[in-house]
């Protein structure tokens, strides 16, 4: 929910949310520190949450909702995650990982992340597009 | 502060007897601070008449462009202070990652589109990228932020002595929004407008026209009213009138808006020559319209 202390979103972030809300693939929108600002309806299935119910999700809370591992079950190093590469190195990144979903199932996931760079050298955050690898 | 509307029309200058009350000149607003600081918002065709009122007593003129669409810069070549040797003029425009402001303005102010080159102007001209954030000119506090309109476009909030004017002439905050207005932090331009004493805002379309122009970067009147209400402004001035709307059509749009809801602000039809005094200011020695 909004409160008076929340900063105004940059227009690029607002437009990205509006685009994401119309697309059929799971999209998550992050601020520069990794807080999840918005996720669309397809992404709600991955997170097991509804955006209308959670609103923004702090970075530290996000990884309590989802667990990402390599195929052998070992944890994926923090720095190797696509989102972290996009936020810290400001580079696009693609990763394959295994996701333990809230319902207990384990699914192979593909995720592509890219940074959002605004006019005037403003680092605005990152976008993650994800999909289950066995889905077309 | 004092704000004067020198051009209220959007998209294309629309002179003629059928637009004489609302005006036919494109976007240009003058803001004068208590100490005589002169800010000019956009350089539509309305800036020509404004330029004639800027005398040598005005030591410095700052022209703040929201963006470089033609209806916001077309009057630039006819702004008299630019032809005044020694006159200090500063032009501010939104930053671009590809070309600087001089290069972009020179696309218009150079042959074959215009006979005079920017570099040939005799005034003391300085060009600036608008800082996206807060800055100050002559005691006036300015907040600039990118807003929803095709191409880099900023809106401005100008504050002095506890009063503020928000100027967002080209703005489509409802674009693609599944809910509008949503939470304020997700509304383009909200910070600029929040609690403003005077909001000058895009109101180009009526409810029938807007669906055919989604994504063009302009607002339906209903969106403008909702935006102003959400931002809790005190007065809303309609602006950027569509060239197809003559005085009678604009009267109808305003009447419908006034009758559509119990508006929590004063709704003012933006007419060329309108003047608004906000807070304390010294008497201007400059001529009026």
The CATH homologous superfamily of chain A is termed PAS domain
Strand content of chain A: 25-35%
How far do the termini of chain A sit from each other? 35 Å
Shape, per Cα inertia axes of chain B: globular
Q: What is the count of helical runs of chain A?
A: 5
**Count of DSSP-assigned helices of chain B:** 5
The CATH topology of chain A is what?
Answer: Beta-Lactamase
CATH top level assignment of chain A: Alpha Beta
Low-confidence stretches of chain A: none
Please name the two chains that share the biggest interface, counting residues whose Cβ lies under 8 Å from a Cβ on the partner chain: A-B, 20 and 23 residues
Summarize the helix and strand pattern of chain B as letters: EEEHEEHEEEEEHEHEHEE
Outline the structure in words.
- The complex is a heterodimer of chains A (about 140) and B (about 290).
- Chain A has helices at about 10-20, 40-45, 50-55, 60-65, 80-90, and strands at about 25-30, 35-40, 65-70, 95-100, 105-120, 120-130.
- In chain A, about 30% of the residues lie in helices and about 30% in strands.
- Chain A is built from 5 helices and 6 strands; from the N terminus they run αββαααβαβββ.
- By secondary structure, chain A is an alpha+beta fold.
- The model of chain A has no long low-confidence stretch (mean pLDDT about 90).
- Chain B has about 290 residues and is α/β, with parallel strands linked by helices.
- Chain B has helices at about 45-50, 100-105, 190-195, 220-230, 245-260; strands spanning about 1-5, 30, 40, 60-65, 90-95, 125-130, 135, 140-145, 155-160, 165-170, 200, 235-240, 265-270, 275.
- In chain B, the strands form 2 sheets. A 7-stranded mixed β-sheet of chain B has the order 6-5-4-3-2-1-14. A 7-stranded mixed β-sheet of chain B has the order 7-8-9-10-11-12-13.
- At the A-B interface, α1 of A face loops of B.
